[in-house]
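Subject: design request, 105 residues
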């Protein structure tokens, strides 16, 4: 996967950087692969990056990616909604947060 950051805008109020990247790949990469690549390009930790959108047109190898890179995990959890966090991180998935119920009485 070849990736290049085209826009990196700081949002001081939300304590994050809003990143737009473009690139190319043979197949659509996973959110984990994109997070790792953006972390390497921006010198941040992959645990604080949330991939919002990965766009490509059918049959095309070009990608357009929108991601948010937070300064810390606490502000990421406070600002991003649970659905986006669940798509990006295994620990926030819906089934993982609910406790298992015991047998019915």
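Subject: RE: design request

Done. Sequence follows.
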């Amino acid at each position: 996967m070849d990736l290049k950051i085209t826009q990196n805008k700081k949002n001081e109020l939300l304590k994050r950087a809003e990143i737009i990247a473009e690139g190319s790949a043979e197949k659509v990469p996973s959110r984990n692969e994109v997070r790792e690549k953006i972390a390497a390009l921006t010198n941040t930790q992959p645990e604080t990056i949330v991939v919002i959108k990965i766009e490509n047109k059918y049959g095309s190898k070009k990608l357009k990616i929108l991601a948010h890179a937070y300064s810390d995990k606490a502000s990421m959890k406070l600002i991003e909604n649970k659905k986006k966090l669940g798509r990006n991180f295994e620990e926030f998935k819906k089934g993982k947060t609910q406790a298992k119920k015991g047998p019915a009485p």
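The chain has one domain: 2-77.
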